[in-house]
Write a structure and sequence with these properties.
By secondary structure, the chain is mainly α. The protein has seven helices and no strands. Helix 6 crosses helix 7.
């Protein structure tokens, strides 16, 4: 191996090299990117977060490039950096998840209340059509028979109800 090879696996090296060939380290890192990404994706389970994790790990690896010669297994060293970066971000992820979960729950309750209010404002025949078909899950034919109207009439009432609900809910931003 070259004198300044940061990936030297020899066990006899006791001190880091005086200067590390950063270009060579970068080239080696590029070759290991697929493995780092694969590992990061297994941790993050989200492509964007995994890419951010790999970026942090590469920055840390470049900052610690002088330690590379001391490592007998550079892949393990780099995977350890990815894992460390993942663990370092765990408290922030938990906080974000709690905040987003609370926000999503509040938004869901708000949307549900808006929908409930909008349903109450529908004319009786439209409200019944929505309740039977969209809420109770009856087939159009069953709902039409229950209401003693033709299927076409039920379909028209559902269409009118959807338009009314859309008009009531969309301006307020209650439903997306």
């Amino acid at each position: 191996m070259e004198e300044n090879d940061p990936w030297d696996r020899s066990r006899g090296v006791r001190s880091p090299p005086a200067s590390v060939d950063v270009q060579k380290v970068r080239e080696q890192l590029v070759g290991l990117l697929p493995r780092l990404r694969r590992f990061a994706r297994s941790l993050a389970r989200n492509a964007q977060e995994a890419d951010d994790l790999v970026q942090v790990a590469i920055e840390r690896a470049l900052a610690r490039a002088d330690q590379l010669r001391l490592q007998s297994h550079p892949v393990r060293w780099l995977l350890g950096i990815v894992r460390g970066a993942w663990l370092d971000g765990a408290p922030a992820r938990r906080r974000r998840e709690r905040v987003f979960a609370a926000q999503e729950a509040a938004e869901a309750v708000s949307e549900l209340l808006a929908l409930q209010e909008a349903l109450a404002r529908l004319p009786e025949e439209q409200h019944l059509a929505v309740a039977l078909v969209l809420i109770e899950g009856l087939a159009y034919k069953e709902a039409a028979e229950l209401l003693n109207v033709p299927v076409a009439t039920l379909t028209g009432r559902l269409a009118q109800a959807r338009e009314t609900l859309h008009a009531l809910l969309e301006p307020a931003g209650a439903l997306r």
